[in-house]
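Here is one chain, start to finish.
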Amino acid sequence: MKKTTMIDTHCHIYVSQLENDIEEVLDRAENVGISDILMPAIDFQSIRQMDKLSHSSIRFHKMAGIHPCEIGESISELAPKLEQEVHKSDIVGIGETGLDYYWSKDFIGNQKESLRIHCQLAKETGKPIVLHNRDSTLDLLEIIEEQQDGRLRGVWHCFTGNLDEGKRALDLNLMLGVGGVVTFKNAGVDKTVADLPLPSMILETDAPYLAPAPYRGKRNEPSYIRQTAIKLAEVKDCSLEEIMEVTTMNARSLFSMEA
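Its structure:
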């Protein structure tokens, strides 16, 4: 019988926090059933870092994009440089991009323009966009609505919205990335995803950040996706196997990945 697997659809596995024990980290990921790890970019340098990873069983998939917190005073070179990257055959997604008003509001205009550039390239390439959102939900969804012409698809990474925002995201052809926050007491994400459709959800860790309970506050890693899957099964009142099967199918469909 074929083993049920999971896909970590958002993992910064290439960063220094995971470097010293990377082989053990990946072995633990394999042991909980992870077959694939998708790697969103933070900047152009991180795309190069992704090429250093290998494992006997886990497949790695690269994305290209500039995190909103990396957007500064000038984005004049962003479009041509990013266009070169996103058309490469080994790039499966555009991102992570989006908006972040939590850390700084100095370059909000440039963040918005960067998001629009990422949206245009996602439509040109047919690759899904991966959206970061912190304290910027209304602006983010407005720009996605503005850019949506039937070609744009993607995921709201680390979904933390309310029910109306989640429904609006689904109407805009976005999936919802469910990560460790769903396990946090008083975050409310568990109650929200309970009322949203499982066929629109994918699993993620955002490792090394946002570790789920009972590891909250510690370094996150791909194997902890199991805690998120267990919590989602509880919230959706279904089996862990169903969560694994449906979210894996959703991820393969969104990112055009072969089984």
